[in-house]
Each structure stands twice: as C-alpha cells, then as structure tokens.
C-alpha cells in the first residue's frame, strides 16, 4: 500500500475546513449530513486508490456519524429558558481553534520567508533539503483534488465482463515513463490529456501513484492556474 498523508490535509480537521471553505459554509451551522457524506466518500476514495488512511481520519468519521445520529434524535421538551446543546458545538470549537492555529502558522511561515530574503555579507545559500514537504510541489492544488480526478476517471471506465478478465500487468515504472513521454514541448501535461491514454481501472490507480512518486522525487509540480480550473503537471526546470 502506498503511504501518503491526506495532503495538503495534515489531519481530519484540515479536510473538514477545506469542505467548509470550498462550499462557503457557515462554520456555526455545518450541514452535518452533507459534510459526513462527503467525508465518508473521501475516505472510500482514498481506500479505492490504495492509499493508507491514518487512524485519526477514521476517528473523525466515527465522530461525524455520532453527531449525525444525535441530530436525528427528537429534541427534548424543555422550558423557555432551557437550551438544547447543539451536538455540533464541540466540533465547531475544534475547527475554530484549529483554524486560528493554522492562520498563526501561516503568518509565522510568511514572516520567516520574508526574513529569509535578507542575508549577511558572505552568506552562502544551502541547497534545498530533499526532505522538504512534498506539498510545496502542489501549487494551489490538494491531493484530495488530484485523487478525486483519478477516482472519477475510474468510475467512467467500462465494467469488465468476467470472460474478459486476465492477469493485467501494469508497472509503476511504465506509467512514470508514460507521463514523461506525454509532456508537450513546454514541459506541460494536462491531467485530462493523460487520463485519455488510460484504458483500465488498474492503469488509473498505478498512474495516480506514478504522479505522486514523480512529485515526491521533485521531477514535476502540479498546478491549477484558476479556481476550479483544469489541473496540469509541469516538468521541473520547464519555464512556468
């Protein structure tokens, strides 16, 4: 199983915040049934693509299901001054606190980058750390969005009849080579063009892993120039 954190989501709260921001949801009035359904669909998608889903994501799934169940229960009859606690309240507080910490981390990171532009005389710049976060090579794109794109491609593949089954051999190296051959003269490759070359669900899965491997090896970056626009790969070293 190919292990990768559900990135750019560093945890389940990050994934939930992505849904909330994308759909412009009021964090104080989360449509728990809809969010739970999409969250569960995401976990299913990651497992379908043979990715290792961390235990904390499974725990959040259980939490969402519990909140959903509580909200389906009939509300108790209380006095005018009594208030029924919203089952979502604890989750909302966790999301707000996480968002504050995330914004603080972003501000600190931005400050560090700005200060990094100034070097004393004689300072020698070190080469990039090969262990730096792979997320830096996903430009305004999340792994969730890439995975969903490949999952949709799998869903659109024709169903194989039993008499058509045979032992299919699809190797990671072959799909990496396919990707490398498919770049245009400017070193760019649209995901839609790549997916057109894939014939089976197994090819889709292995090609998805090949993309992740090429990103990890710092050979390509994944970019999305416009919000909800088409994603494309760019070979590192090619002019942006």
Q: Main attributes?
A:
4-stranded mixed β-sheet; 2 domains; 240 residues
Task: Give your account of this protein's structure.
It is a single chain. With 240 residues, the chain is mainly α. It folds into two domains: 12-74 and 85-115, no CATH class; 134-161 and 168-235, no CATH class. It contains eight helices and four strands, in the order ααααβααβααββ. The chain has helices at 12-22, 32-48, 55-72, 89-115, 143-155, 172-182, 191-195, 201-216; strands at residues 138-139, 188-190, 220-223, 232-235. A four-stranded mixed sheet has the order 1-3-4-2. A hairpin with an 8-residue loop joins strand 3 and strand 4. Helix 2 crosses helix 5 (143-155) and helix 5 (143-155) packs antiparallel against helix 8. It is elongated.
- Our estimate of the beta-strand percent is 5-15%
Distance between the termini: 33 Å
Structural class of the helix and strand makeup?
mainly alpha
- Sheet bearing the most strands, described? 4 strands, mixed
Layout of strands and helices, then pairs:
Elements: H1 12-22, H2 32-48, H3 55-72, H4 89-115, E1 138-139, H5 143-155, H6 172-182, E2 188-190, H7 191-195, H8 201-216, E3 220-223, E4 232-235
Parallel strand pairs: 1-3
Antiparallel strand pairs: 2-4, 3-4
Helix pairs in contact: 1-4, 2-3, 2-5, 5-8, 6-8
């Amino acid at each position: 199983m190919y292990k990768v954190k559900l990135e750019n989501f560093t945890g389940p709260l990050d994934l939930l915040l992505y849904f909330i921001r994308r759909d412009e949801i009021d964090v104080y009035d989360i449509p728990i049934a809809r969010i739970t359904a999409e969250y569960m669909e995401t976990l299913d998608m990651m497992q379908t693509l043979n990715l290792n889903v961390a235990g904390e994501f499974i725990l959040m799934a259980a939490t969402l299901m519990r909140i959903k169940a509580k909200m389906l229960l009939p509300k108790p009859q209380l006095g005018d001054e009594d208030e029924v606690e919203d089952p979502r309240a604890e989750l909302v507080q966790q999301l707000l606190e996480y968002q504050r910490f995330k914004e603080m981390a972003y501000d600190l990171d931005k400050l560090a980058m700005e200060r990094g532009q100034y070097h004393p005389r004689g300072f020698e710049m070190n080469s990039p750390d090969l262990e730096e976060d792979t997320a830096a090579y996903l430009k305004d794109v999340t792994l969730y969005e890439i995975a969903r794109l490949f999952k949709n491609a799998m869903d659109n593949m024709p169903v194989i009849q039993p008499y058509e089954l045979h032992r299919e051999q699809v190797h990671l190296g072959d799909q990496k080579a396919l990707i490398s051959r498919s770049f245009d003269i400017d070193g760019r490759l649209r995901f839609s063009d790549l997916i057109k070359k894939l014939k089976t669900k197994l090819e889709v899965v292995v090609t998805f892993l090949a993309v992740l491997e090429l990103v990890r090896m710092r050979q390509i970056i994944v970019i999305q120039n416009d919000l909800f626009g088409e994603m494309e790969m760019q070979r590192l070293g090619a002019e942006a």
